[in-house]
Design brief:
Elements: H1 5-8, E1 15-17, H2 22-30, E2 36-37, H3 54-75, E3 83-93, E4 96-98, H4 104-114, E5 118-133, E6 136-152, H5 157-165, E7 186-190, H6 193-197, H7 201-212, H8 231-236, H9 244-249, E8 252-254, E9 261-263, E10 267-269, E11 275-280, E12 286-292, H10 294-314, H11 317-324, H12 329-336, H13 340-352, E13 356-359, E14 362-365, H14 367-372, H15 382-397, H16 399-405, H17 410-414, H18 421-427, H19 430-453, E15 462-466, H20 472-480, E16 485-490, H21 492-495, E17 511-515, E18 528-532, H22 540-550, E19 558-563, H23 574-580, H24 591-600, E20 603-609, E21 616-622
Parallel strand pairs: 1-2, 1-3, 15-16, 15-18, 16-17, 18-19
Antiparallel strand pairs: 3-4, 3-5, 5-6, 6-7, 8-9, 10-11, 11-12, 13-14, 19-21, 20-21
Helix pairs in contact: 4-5, 10-13, 10-15, 12-13, 15-19, 19-20
The protein binds 5-Methyluridine triphosphate.
């Protein structure tokens, strides 16, 4: 892609974003960066008065956040990342640094201070390149900051409190979110908008370009210093990583004094990912611009892409290419016993989707496929992909009926209508059982690190993972916290089949399995209970049964819940909202809803970490008795 070879430079690297901020995750993901999220545990408590300027404080905090994650990942024997990115956003007004408000009163103080005035938003960013020498971590830090000026309108008391009660200010520097309701408070913005939201993407790309493409001297005059290096510059310096068809069909040139990119083909993407179709008349004046609904087309094609992924996984094409290296379509077709023309079309589709690469030697796996689609890779999602095809695809084909009736269509897809149909389906035969457990294991494995490291759990020694299935999360926990002992509590049918999922790590003897039904049987004693991907599946009544049991655990013990947490509008993230369409008896909840639910059963100090990956994490503590 012409626009992001700098980002493309990071494709083969293990990039970690050391931030829990969902906004940073979204900005970087939208820019096409592939990364893991490991939120930093660095406490933002540097002495502000020891810094000559506010931005120095933000830069140092960003650096410490990134270094803490780099060190932790290295020390905990997790694979050392190649690059860790940390960021810190602060608001400054009249020499004072404002961070996230601690409570509503604090938010009120901040916002009334900003009312009617101009303030600065600084985001400090640290890019830490890591390497491991003789088992020691070596780091190289590049840091920078960006300043944006924002002016607030005069805010009435009523508006101020309405805004505070919306809940939006609490996790945001200065107590506002310019990208959402807070946008209504703003009169003007001078500078990079995304810098206010939490990440200065433009300057970040420039920094990457500086790091990865030090420009040859004779081309220096082509680079405009107040903008991302022009598209032309990217293409020249992209080591041939650009998609060749992009290069030929869209010779981009940047108009001077304007950020608009004109393409000679007449087609060019604008900031929304839509195409502006512009028609140049003979005298060069643009006559007509219409928007092409790319997003809509992507939605229309979504099902085709999913099915191409499912079928190529089912045919084990990614395993084959991993084993044999680049292959022609004819050889692949012979090996998978499929037609040549059909196979070629499927391989081209997978290439278009970024799962395969194609060159004169034939087709080979893209990094994404090697990492996640090869069936025996460390982080394989192969079994989960098959589960999506075999189990979820048929369910979603009955969506219209599901919406009309307001019920799950399990009976249509599985052919029976019983209360415990889901469990029946999953455990009806040894093969089904193994397949279901493999699917759950593969998805649990790729989310386990996020869940296990969202909070510092080192104080907990005796842990019980309720419904922990194959123990994927339990094994990750004992890897990170060597003092921990984890009991996985699950149905007898599950527990008798877990041996094949045991990894060969050193702490595996600290994981135990205990069989039982968490709705009916006594739960093992523990000082930390875990419910990962459990609550969203069950009815209010069943959740009541389960949480009532947990509510009598000893005061001071904790409960960790891993779920996708919805925003307060209940429309984001889309994957959770889409999952709700299966109409199980359960439901997805927002942060506030989880908080209220957990508080109802005597858990307090509810903390929520939005990881931006599949699962967010909630930690709460059982209230000490007052008598
Ligand atoms: C002004 C403004 C800020 N923010 C958010 O404020 C947090 C700053 O806090 P931080 O300490 O820099 O980051 P964090 O959220 O604690 O995450 P982490 O990087 O883990 O420290 C970040 O979230 C930003 O998006 C918005 O979403 N919109 C805005 O208009």
């Amino acid at each position: 892609m012409a626009l992001n070879p700098v980002i493309g430079k990071l494709v083969s690297k293990r990039v970690v974003l050391a931030s829990a901020s969902p906004r940073r995750q979204e900005i970087l993901a939208n820019a096409g960066l592939r990364f893991e999220v490991v939120p930093s545990w660095f406490k933002e408590t540097l002495e502000k008065s020891s810094f000559a300027a506010p931005y120095e404080y933000a830069v140092e905090t960003a650096k410490q956040k990134a270094l803490e994650v780099a060190n932790r990942m290295h020390l905990k024997h997790l694979r050392t990342p190649d690059v860790v990115i940390g960021a810190d956003t602060i608001v400054t007004i009249e020499e004072q640094i404002l961070e996230k408000p601690v409570d509503k009163q604090d938010a009120y103080k901040m916002l009334s201070r900003l009312s009617g005035k101009e303030h600065s938003v600084f985001t400090g960013v640290a890019i830490v390149h890591c390497s491991s020498k003789d088992n020691r971590l070596e780091t190289e830090v590049t840091d920078f900051y960006e300043e944006t000026k924002v002016k607030f309108a005069e805010l009435s008391e009523e508006l101020l409190w309405d805004y505070i009660h919306s809940g939006e200010p609490m996790d945001k520097a200065g107590g506002y979110g310019i990208q959402a309701l807070g946008g209504m408070l703003v009169e003007y913005v001078h500078g990079d908008f995304l810098n206010v939201v939490g990440f200065p993407l433009n300057r970040f790309c420039k920094k990457l370009a500086e790091l990865y493409y030090p420009p040859p001297k004779h081309t220096i005059h082509h680079i405009k210093h107040d903008s991302i290096p022009s598209v032309e510059t990217f293409e020249i310096s992209s080591d041939g990583e650009c998609n060749s068809s992009d290069n030929t069909s869209c010779k981009s040139a940047k108009k001077q004094n304007s950020s608009e990119i004109i393409c000679t083909s007449g087609k060019c993407r604008n900031g929304n990912g839509n195409y502006n179709v512009s028609m140049d008349s003979q005298n060069g004046v643009k006559e007509n611009t219409t928007q092409f609904p790319t997003k809509l087309l992507q939605l229309l094609d979504g099902f085709k892409a999913s099915k191409a992924l499912f079928v190529s996984s089912k045919l084990k094409i990614f395993d084959l290419l991993k084993e044999k290296g680049a292959m022609s379509s004819v050889d692949v077709a012979n090996q998978v016993k499929a037609s040549v023309c059909g196979t070629e079309r499927l391989l081209d589709a997978c290439t278009a989707l970024g799962l395969l690469e194609k060159n004169h030697q034939g087709y080979s796996n893209a990094e994404l496929a090697n990492l996640y689609l090869v069936s025996d890779s460390e982080s394989s999602l192969y079994n989960f992909v098959l589960y999506c095809n075999d189990r979820l695809w048929p369910l979603y084909t009955h969506l219209e009926l599901a919406v009309k009736e307001g019920t799950s269509q399990n009976h249509c897809t599985l052919g029976k209508k019983e209360e415990d149909l889901f469990q029946d389906f999953c455990y009806q035969s040894t093969e089904m059982k193994q397949r279901f457990m493999s699917a759950m294991h593969s998805i649990a494995k790729v989310t386990a690190r996020d869940v296990a490291s969202a909070f510092d759990l080192s104080q907990f020694r005796v842990v019980c993972d309720l419904g922990g299935c194959t123990g994927a999360l339990a094994y990750e926990l004992v890897e990170i916290y060597p003092e921990m002992k984890v009991t996985v509590f699950d149905l007898p049918d599950v527990v008798t089949n877990v041996s094949s999922f045991q990894p060969s790590g050193q702490n595996t003897t600290q994981v135990f399995f205990s069989s039982g039904d968490f709705f009916k049987d006594n739960l093992p004693e523990a000082d930390l209970y875990i419910l990962s991907r459990v609550l969203h599946d069950w009815s209010e009544e069943k959740i009541h049964t389960l949480l009532s049991k947990l509510s009598v655990c000893k005061p001071g013990s904790a409960l960790l819940v891993a779920e996708t947490v919805l925003d307060e509008k209940r429309t984001c993230p889309a994957r959770a909202v889409l999952q709700s369409l299966t109409m199980t008896e359960g439901k997805q909840r927002s942060g506030l809803e989880y908080q209220q639910l957990l508080e109802k059963y005597g858990f307090t100090n509810v903390q929520i970490k939005i990881t931006g990956n599949l699962l967010d994490v909630i930690l709460c503590i059982k209230k000490m008795s007052t008598h």
